[in-house]
């Protein structure tokens, strides 16, 4: 495997954690490059289930180095909780995890401001995970953020933490909200900083050295293309670049060092939070997809909105990411449907459109035009090769790949690590 970026082609929750886990077998270093603990990557290994939010899924493979890149916004308490959870299951992060000194820290005040902003938006709320992601990135680009290097400098950390906390409390007070107990939060943060300081490093230098030594790097995206702050369904997006280009900026690795982009898509579509979703099924079929696919958020537990596969949006996503290989997940969820629909065009204000409009208001008015395919009505969860798949399942996958103009390399037919296979 060459240096590979793996990203989601839809609205997140495509099953990236599982595919990363499978590809990690061929990688020496796995790098998270954007987002924060809003992500929830679920990996099932045998009877064990792991839900990772900040730590790259590569941690489940002995000997892989995992890097939290500079593009991530890092909540120190969430990270420690996750490290402890892994330790309880026999996985020690010591010597296997590095935090970029340039990653921005995410504090309790970011979470409080996220909650406040959502409550003020009322009906128009974004439906964030309330993990403080937007406010943390606002501080980063507003040049008032605090970076992970300060975990090694408690005095500076305290100075900036108190300064920003005081500003946050002024805002909370102005909105009649309870203020944050800065002293109590600082004591918790001081402890967390001492615990995490040994993991802080110049990871851009480390990754580039590893590339020079021909080590293989896997870049792990979080969320999905349509939540990208530039290309997603703005403003119903997250605050980072979830598309493949984000891997370079979020890790300090040049585009010339990346050889491959793998796009992950579910065999149908889901979305959490607000925003347009043309193929959404607000009916019994949507309920059925949610139930069979266990479509509830790994981070917030919220029910996911479910719908048919949108080949128009996904083709655009393949283009934006340069996804030359596809991983299609959750095929087994469709096992029992008589017929399946694929959206091949939109009807917008009486016009037929085959490219996703860049105007979110137009996208919100898009009505899906469907192509119907027969269901395969057979259990795919025990299949382990393309040849094992029922011919109608093969036809469905082949049609998806043709419509979105990429090539299927990996198929996932269930939550377990073992239920994944490569297509030759
Ligand atoms: P935020 O990232 O918490 O600010 O949330 C912004 C939008 O992104 C909301 O619609 C969230 O539901 C969505 N979102 C954030 N992280 C994820 C994820 O990991 N999977 C799916 N949706 C996500």
Keywords:
20 strands; 424 residues; Adenylosuccinate Synthetase, Chain A, domain 1; alpha/beta; Adenylosuccinate Synthetase, Chain A, domain 3; 32% helix; Adenylosuccinate Synthetase, subunit A, domain 2
What is the topological layout?
Elements: E1 4-8, H1 16-24, E2 29-32, E3 41-45, E4 48-52, E5 65-68, E6 73-74, H2 76-88, E7 97-100, E8 104-105, H3 108-121, H4 133-141, H5 154-174, H6 182-196, E9 200-201, H7 203-212, E10 217-220, H8 246-249, E11 260-266, E12 269-271, H9 284-292, E13 305-307, E14 309-310, H10 311-321, E15 325-329, E16 339-348, E17 351-353, H11 360-365, E18 367-374, H12 391-404, E19 408-412, E20 420-422
Parallel strand pairs: 1-10, 1-11, 2-5, 2-10, 5-7, 6-8, 7-9, 11-15, 14-16, 15-19
Antiparallel strand pairs: 3-4, 12-13, 16-17, 16-18, 19-20
Helix pairs in contact: 3-4, 3-5, 5-6
The chain binds inosinic acid.
Inosinic acid is lined by residues 12-13, 38-40, 126-129, 131, 133-134, 222-223, 227, 236, 238-239, 272-273.
């Amino acid at each position: 495997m060459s240096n590979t970026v793996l990203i989601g082609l839809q609205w997140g929750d495509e099953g990236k954690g599982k595919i990363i886990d499978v590809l990690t077998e061929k990688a020496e270093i796995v790098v998270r490059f954007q987002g924060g603990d809003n992500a929830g990557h679920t990996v099932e290994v045998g009877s064990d289930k792991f839900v990772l939010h900040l730590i790259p899924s590569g941690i489940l493979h002995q000997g892989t180095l995992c890097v939290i890149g500079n593009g991530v916004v890092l909540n120190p308490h969430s990270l420690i909780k996750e490290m402890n959870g892994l330790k309880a299951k026999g996985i020690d992060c010591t010597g296997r995890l590095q935090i970029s000194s340039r990653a921005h820290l995410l504090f309790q005040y970011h979470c409080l401001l996220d909650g406040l902003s959502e409550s003020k938006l009322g009906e128009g709320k974004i439906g964030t995970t309330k993990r403080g992601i937007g406010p943390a990135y606002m501080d980063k680009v507003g040049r008032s953020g605090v970076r992970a290097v300060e975990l090694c400098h408690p005095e500076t950390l305290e100075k900036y933490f108190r300064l920003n906390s005081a500003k946050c409390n002024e805002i909370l007070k102005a909105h009649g909200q309870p203020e944050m107990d800065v002293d109590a939060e600082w004591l918790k943060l001081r402890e967390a900083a001492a615990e995490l300081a040994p993991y802080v490093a110049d990871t851009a230098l480390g990754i580039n050295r590893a590339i020079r030594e021909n080590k293989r790097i896997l870049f792990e995206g979080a969320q999905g293309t349509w939540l990208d702050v530039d290309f997603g369904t703005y403003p119903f997006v997250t605050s980072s670049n979830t598309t493949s280009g984000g891997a370079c900026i979020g890790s300090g690795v040049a585009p010339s060092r990346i050889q491959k982009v793998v796009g992950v898509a579910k065999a149908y579509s889901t979305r959490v939070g607000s925003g347009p979703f043309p193929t959404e099924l607000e009916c019994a079929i949507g309920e059925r997809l949610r139930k069979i696919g266990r479509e509830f958020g790994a981070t917030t537990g919220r029910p996911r909105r479910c719908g048919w596969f949108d080949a128009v949006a996904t083709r655009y996503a393949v283009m934006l990411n340069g996804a030359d290989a596809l991983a299609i997940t959750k095929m087994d969820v469709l096992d029992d449907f008589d017929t399946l629909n694929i959206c091949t065009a939109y009807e917008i204000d009486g016009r037929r459109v085959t490219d996703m409009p860049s105007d979110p208001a137009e996208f919100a008015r898009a009505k899906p035009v469907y192509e119907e395919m027969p269901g395969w009505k057979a259990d795919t969860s025990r299949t382990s090769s393309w040849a094992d798949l029922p011919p109608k399942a093969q036809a469905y996958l082949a049609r998806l790949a043709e419509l979105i103009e990429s090539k299927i390399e990996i198929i996932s037919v269930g939550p377990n690590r073992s239920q994944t296979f490569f297509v030759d």
